[in-house]
Design goal:
four-stranded mixed beta sheet, six-stranded mixed beta sheet, alpha/beta, about 260 residues, 12 helices
């Protein structure tokens, strides 16, 4: 009998949090074509899974969250193959980017090139104290091709984005925090996954409809003028206005108890 292939991503549920762990430690959790497809499928599935309120994405081992593209696979690709791979980055990582559930990257080691771009499609980022983040593509004769040239400037500004990309600057976890590239750095000796789980506790018990509406409004803010953005915010707000969760929050406040949100 042929041995069953191990999954590229393991999935573990802890309450309403779904923990996805990339299982390619021998390749520094690098992004192969199959891994991209697996990420996209998981993102599409979790979007309609009412039992999940938060996704936490990490890498196996302590060395790498994701070291970027699988260069061993890339060497065997033609130029057209690579163009197709770039399209996959956009479609499959795009599915994660558009996920209506908050997605949190627990960066357990290096996040370089496509690995950092994977972290950037997540809504929040928690980095281990030993993590390193960077976009070294120009040193390889290319540029970031999975959104790095667009998402990094939105987070850290034009000047720092150019420093990272043109100089191939690698940031320590503390530097990434100071620059606004990550939201939190886990204290040394503490598991970044456990720390992230504790930190996102309010999301795991929060109101799913409100979170989804807030994500949609915030993400659209970068695409439109302020006036249009305010109108989109109003539309998103209205989705929460008619929800059972909003009434539950008011009832819980009056009763001086914690609310129980059901995503309705």
């Amino acid at each position: 009998m042929t041995a069953e292939k191990a999954p590229l991503i393991s999935v573990e549920k802890r309450g309403t949090v779904s923990i996805w762990t990339v299982q390619r430690p021998d390749r520094m959790n690098s992004l192969s074509r199959d891994l991209l497809l697996a990420l996209g499928q998981l993102a599409r599935d979790v979007a309609i899974d009412e039992s999940v309120r938060v996704v936490l994405l990490t890498g196996s081992g302590e060395k790498a969250f994701c070291a970027g593209a699988d260069l061993k696979e890339r060497r065997g690709m033609s130029e057209n193959d690579i163009r197709a791979q770039l399209d996959l980055y956009r479609s499959e990582l795009g599915a994660l980017d558009r996920c209506p559930k908050p997605v949190v990257a627990a960066i357990n080691g290096v996040a370089l090139g496509g690995g950092l771009e994977l972290a950037l499609v997540c809504d929040l980022r928690v980095a281990a104290s030993h993590a390193e983040l960077g976009l070294p593509e120009t040193s390889l004769g290319i540029i970031p091709g999975a959104g790095g040239t667009q998402r990094v400037p939105r987070l850290v500004g034009e000047a720092r984005a150019k420093e990272m990309i043109l100089l191939g600057r690698r940031l320590s976890a503390e530097e990434a925090l100071a620059w606004g590239l990550v939201n939190r750095v886990t204290p040394p000796g503490v598991s970044v996954v456990d720390d992230a789980l504790k930190w996102v506790g309010p999301l795991a018990t929060g109101a799913p409809l409100a979170q989804a509406a807030a994500l949609q409004a915030i993400d659209r803010a970068f695409d439109v003028s302020l006036e249009v953005g305010l109108e989109l915010e109003k539309v998103s707000y209205d989705k929460t206005l008619v929800s059972e969760d909003r009434r539950e929050a008011l009832d819980a406040f009056a009763a001086k108890r914690a609310p129980t949100f059901r995503g309705r």
